[in-house]
Every structure is written in structure tokens, then in C-alpha cells.
Design goal:
The protein is mainly β. It has one domain. The protein contains 2 helices and 10 strands; from the N terminus they run E-E-E-E-E-E-E-E-E-E-H-H. A 6-stranded antiparallel beta sheet has the order 5-4-3-2-1-10, with no helix packed on it. It is globular, with a radius of gyration of 17 Å. The chain starts with 9 loop residues before the first strand and ends in an 8-residue tail after the last helix. About 25% of the residues are buried. This is APLP protein.
């Protein structure tokens, strides 16, 4: 257990073999954080302190702006949202749960993901000796070096202004892929 001192977005866990899931901790404005969860062509951004979540489903192809902002009930993933808790999971054994009351989130992976994921959460192979692996395959015993190695964006102190909704769904997909602060392709 260690404190995360970074003010940047960091990769917590990703399936690097099948790309079945990605989990990123994003730093938002005013020291707030969000959790970006991607699985099954669906992205869910969870804002624990705001007790909110937002979903984008990239399998929709309709040409209107509202299609990508669906409620969790319309998702292809299993989801459960209560007053103070949200849980999302897929059929391949990835589960993310956030308790809004305690600002506490968990990521659970089934045995199918043994040894094929990596990130700040480690390698998920039950080997204590390689938990502090950095993306290039080397190891560190320095928390700051480990955290910096899994950063997914450059840190910026200037908050971005929200842009109006694009005209088509395809333009909105491009915006989410290339302009959102949590995107790996930014």
C-alpha cells in the first residue's frame, strides 16, 4: 500500500494481450479524481466524489450526439447502480465497483486475466517479486519512478474548456479518442 502523489492520470491496469479492459485513474480539476474503465467497446467514467458516472458505447453508429451518452442500463455490460454504489462487470471476469459514500473503488480480475495485465496495480500473476515493474520491463523500488512510468498523459495545470457537442456520432467518437484527457491516444 502506498500514497499516490501524482497529479497526473495513471494506468492502473490493462490487459496487454487481448485488450479486454483498461482502467485509468484520472486527475480532474480541483483535486478530484475519476476512474476510466474500458471494456466491450464501452467506456464508463466514474466520478466518485460527484456520485456520478458517464458511459460511451462505441458500437453505436447512429448519427446523433446523444447516442454515445447512454445510461448504464443500456450497456452491454452487467451493471448495478445503487444510491451509494456502482458496479460494472463483463462476461470475461472484469469487475469494477465504487462505493460513493467512502470514495473507495475496487478492481477484481478473474483467473482468465492471470499474468496478462500490468499497470500501477502490478502484474496480476501472484509473484511479489515483479509487482514494481515499469512499462519497459525493468523494475524499480521507488514509488515516484513507478508512478511516473505509468502516467498516460502530460500534466497540465490549465483546465481545458468544454467544447460543444459535435455534429455527428463519428466526430464525437474522434473527440473521445483523441481529445479527452483520459484517452490513451491523446
Amino acid at each position: 500500500m502506498y500514497d499516490l502523489a501524482s497529479k497526473c492520470s495513471v494506468l492502473l491496469a490493462k490487459d496487454f494481450v487481448h485488450s479486454a479492459f483498461t482502467v485509468i485513474l484520472n486527475e480532474e480539476i480541483r483535486n478530484s479524481r475519476s476512474l476510466y474503465v474500458e471494456m466491450n467497446q464501452t467506456v464508463i467514467t466514474i466520478y466518485p466524489r460527484l456520485k456520478q458516472s458517464k458511459m460511451y458505447n462505441f458500437s453505436f453508429t447512429e448519427e446523433n450526439c446523444q447516442v454515445l451518452d447512454q445510461s448504464l442500463e443500456d450497456s452491454t455490460m452487467n451493471s448495478r447502480q445503487g444510491t451509494n454504489k456502482i458496479e460494472v462487470s463483463d462476461q470475461k471476469g472484469v469487475s469494477v465497483s465504487c462505493d460513493f459514500q467512502y470514495d473507495f473503488c475496487t478492481v477484481t480480475l478473474a483467473g482468465w486475466h492471470h499474468g496478462i495485465s500490468a499497470g500501477l496495480f502490478g502484474t496480476n500473476d501472484n509473484e511479489a517479486g515483479n509487482e514494481w515493474m515499469v512499462p519497459n520491463g525493468s523494475f524499480t523500488d521507488n514509488v515516484q519512478e513507478l508512478t511516473q512510468s505509468w502516467q498516460v498523459n502530460k500534466c497540465s495545470l490549465v483546465p481545458k474548456k468544454e467544447k460543444p457537442c459535435p455534429i455527428t456520432a463519428k466526430q464525437n467518437i474522434c473527440k473521445v479518442f483523441f481529445e479527452e484527457p483520459h484517452s490513451l491516444l491523446r
